């Protein structure tokens, strides 16, 4: 399942990952570069091994930045 928190307030990514099933994804930013209010949270969760970060190309110069809950703990 894919969720989108682009318009949500900062801090919601932690809560989302806790409630998501393994393999679920959440789009936390859409734009040309990795940025936005959820970037710091995404990097923190990634460094703790709680998510995998990647980008998905949407069009010329536009990407969806995604955090995926790992399949294995």
Layout: helices, strands, pairs:
Layout: E1 2-4, H1 12-19, E2 25-31, H2 39-47, E3 52-59, E4 62-68
Parallel strand pairs: 1-2
Antiparallel strand pairs: 2-4, 3-4
Describe the overall structure.
This protein is of the alpha+beta class and 73 residues long. It has helices spanning 12-19, 39-47, and strands at 2-4, 25-31, 52-59, 62-68. Strand 3 (52-59) and strand 4 (62-68) form a beta hairpin. It is globular. The mean pLDDT is 95.
Largest sheet: 4 strands, mixed
- How would you sum up the global shape? globular
Radius of gyration: 11 Å
As a percent range, the share of strand residues is 25-35%
Report the end-to-end length measured between terminal Cα atoms. 18 Å
User: How helix-rich are the residues, as a percent range?
Assistant: 10-25%
The largest beta-sheet arranges its strands as: 1-2-4-3
The tally of helices reads 2
Low-pLDDT residue spans: none
Oligomeric composition of the shown chains? single chain
Secondary structure tally: strands: 4
Average pLDDT: 95
What is the string of SSEs from the N terminus onward?
EHEHEE
Structural class: alpha+beta
From the structure above, extract its key features.
single chain; 73 residues; alpha+beta; 4-stranded mixed sheet; 2 helices; 4 strands; globular
Quick description:
The protein is 23% helix and 34% strand. With 73 residues, the chain is an alpha+beta fold.
């Amino acid at each position: 399942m894919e969720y989108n928190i682009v318009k949500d307030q900062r801090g919601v990514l932690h809560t989302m990952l806790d409630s998501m099933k393994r393999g679920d994804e959440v789009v936390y930013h859409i734009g040309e570069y990795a940025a936005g209010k959820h970037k710091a949270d995404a990097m923190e969760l990634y460094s703790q091994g709680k998510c995998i970060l990647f980008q998905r190309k949407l069009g010329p110069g536009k990407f969806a930045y995604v955090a995926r809950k790992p399949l294995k703990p």
